[in-house]
């Protein structure tokens, strides 16, 4: 394909540059993938191999570490807690955030600037720190050490993204479509559910997945707010000093797997989301 | 429903939620930090700043941010310009490069532990090349430089993706005509990058830097996984005040200090990279 665009520069000066470019791309891909591959080797090795030296560079497909992980006291509960908290975060952030995204894309109203500022402000603060005062508040209200309490904090983390993403999604649907539905006898609500919602559903799913990942990955607030009902990240963090290496690696791998799938699922929306969020 | 109040009804849930779980906790954290139970006091701040670990953890956090963020910015800019020129395989390359975006800091720490640990892959590689004959304990107090390097690499590996996404989105917004015009006038690719991409990318650079710098001050789990107590950072100290020492007033005071640093740097970045009025694309 280089021949097709062979231009005034000539092939001699082009080839080395192209070679350099391609090898840089490959190198950067390897920089991302190779560390994950190392984790995979460790996860699929027997506990003895994990601590042995020197290491094999090919996985031996031994499920010893993963079985140990599954049998470790409390870890499956922690895994379940992680899923529950992330699921709750996903539902709450979309249910609360999407209407605001719609309002921002469809209406000009006094106070809109202030509202946008509030949303953007949340991104300019180290939010996990909020878990500290909330820990005290939650004890008073009985929300301490519950999945719901933690999900509330994670929702605060996810909501700015939910609002901005749904804002960009709704902005992509011409208002004329809705107006046409109104003239054909739809109310504002039925026009929304029959016309806008089907168009927007894949995008909403993507931003829900994004909220799930934010909660799934969060460590600090989870570690501060849960004691008995630890999430997987909090559980691993708390046992870092005491747990054997193969447990850490298996746990780390379990944390990574959903991330790989989720990023693949939302990849189409990733850039559209941020493009509009910058403005 | 009346179109006049509809938008307010729609934004009400978010506003209420953020008031209760974002603004109110800030009031609470300030209250905790400045009180000894009933009276106003600065004692909590005096207590934490006079602790021997405070200057070290402050220095470590700032040094790490200073080492990591510029590398990430350069790397993200390089990757973003590379990907915009790409014709074939753009989607797969972008997917691979954005994978770390979904990986938690704790998992990233564990991934790099697999490399730097005593029985890790770095030791295995070095022995394979005949550099060493027995594994070295790289992450120990005798090698503070290597501990720092491991943490910095893990951070660069993990969090460059977020900047990349923002910058790729930003480059996508720059009209192609500018580049075509520059090419007509014979500007080299490097000149085009300097004179078109960089200035027009300023809003995205702003967002990316603010987000990244704040996350850099929040660094916690990567350090916990790789350095443990060898490399104290502000967020880790906050956690141990809250959890190990059960002193939530001191933890609140630490939180306010991290907050103040974050806000300070945010304002500096916004000021330095400010977009002149009416100059947006």
UniProtKB/TrEMBL annotation, chain A:
A GO CC annotation given for this chain: plasma membrane
Is Secreted a UniProt keyword of this protein? no
List each copy of the ABC transmembrane type-1 domain by range.
Answer: 79-266
Predominant subcellular localization, coarse grouping: membrane
Task: State the InterPro entries in the record.
Answer: BP-dep_ABC_trans_perm, MetI-like, MetI-like_sf
Q: Which domain of life is it from?
A: Bacteria
UniProt topology in membrane: Multi-pass membrane protein
The signal sequence is none
TM stretches of this protein: 20-40, 85-105, 117-139, 151-175, 195-216, 245-266
Q: Key word Cytoplasm present in the record?
A: no
Query: Which UniProt keywords are given for this protein, alphabetically ordered?
Result: Cell membrane, Membrane, Transmembrane, Transmembrane helix, Transport
Positions in coiled-coil regions: none
Tell me the Gene Ontology biological-process terms attached to this UniProt entry: transmembrane transport
Q: Where in the cell is it found?
A: Cell membrane
Give the family from UniProt: Belongs to the binding-protein-dependent transport system permease family.
Its name, as the record gives it, is: Carbohydrate ABC transporter membrane protein 2 (CUT1 family)
TrEMBL record, chain B:
Q: Any stretches that span the bilayer, and where are they?
A: 5-27, 62-80, 92-115, 146-174, 209-231, 251-273
Localization, per the record, is: Cell membrane
Asked if Membrane is a keyword of the record, the answer is yes
Keywords on this record?
Answer: Membrane, Transmembrane, Transmembrane helix, Transport
User: Which biological process terms from the Gene Ontology are attached to this UniProt entry?
Assistant: transmembrane transport
- The answer to keyword tRNA processing applying to this record is no
Lipid bilayer topology: Multi-pass membrane protein
Q: Domain (ABC transmembrane type-1): give its ranges.
A: 58-269
Question: Where is this protein chiefly located?
Answer: membrane
- A GO CC annotation given for this chain: plasma membrane
* Record-stated family: Belongs to the binding-protein-dependent transport system permease family.
Report the protein name in the record: Carbohydrate ABC transporter membrane protein 1 (CUT1 family)
